[in-house]
Amino acid sequence: MSGHPARSSLPSLAHQAMPTGNRSAAAQGTAPAAPGRDCPACPRLADFRAGSRRAEPAWHNAPVPSFGALDVPLLIVGLAPGLRGANRTGRPFTGDYAGDLLYATLAALGLADGTYGARADDGFALRGCRVTNAVRCVPPENKPTGDEIRACNGFLAAELAAMPRLRAVLALGSVAHGAVLAALGLTKSRFKFAHGARHAIGGGRTLVDSYHCSRYNTSTKVLTPAMFGDAVRIARDLARG
Ligand code: SF4
Questions:
Q1: Pseudo-torsion of CA 7, 52, 122, 142, nearest 10°?
Q2: 35 ligand 1 Cβ < 6 A
């Protein structure tokens, strides 16, 4: 374990910083605690990040800030940035296969405006939802350890707490499902992950589960685009009330 402080102490972390996309919210005093560019809490991920900076200095290569406004009713939670996706572009799910499916689905369901161009500066905007990851830094082989998921959980907890209109959370995969429960202080064993499942998580909010929209899951037919669309639609409709 990295020695990362418990999430209750996050606001005093020296390595936290305000993500660029949250500055207007910060001005209103509502921005959640977010990791700084050189967050040291996960030594393995910090080493991996440093290696990627050396190899690809033009890439983002830092914790990836959440995408979308805070004052929305739906939060979508993925696993972690992909090496050549969000870690390269600096925006969750942007630049890899999972983002192609996620953002096409959001656009088709009226949850986005503009044309997704797989770049952070493509002008694509979310409507009524926000996207984040359970782990903010890219992990080797897309696999964060349990300690890394726990170390980053305070940032997810801060995210959830900073969304006053939140009504639905869509977890993409079982790791995101568990991270959301942990961030809310709920016992995982009481909420079994299943694609399309809905869980009451308190405060009138619902957690909806989906298999992760990864290339692996779609190429193996664990998840079809239609199945994914159904899960997103459930979450959207719950969020809209
Ligand atoms: S994964 Fe989260 S806690 Fe770990 S180094 Fe990155 S930002 Fe910090």
A1: -60
A2: yes
Evaluate: CB of 149 within 6 angstroms of ligand 1: no
Question: pTM of this prediction?
Answer: 0.90
Rounded CA-CA distance 203/43 in Å is 35
pLDDT for the residue numbered 31: 87
Q: How high is the pLDDT of residue 27?
A: 36
Q: What is the mean pLDDT of residues 96-102?
A: 98
134 Cα to the center of ligand 1, angstroms: 10
The CATH H-level (homologous superfamily) assignment of domain 7-240 is Uracil-DNA glycosylase-like domain (3.40.470.10)
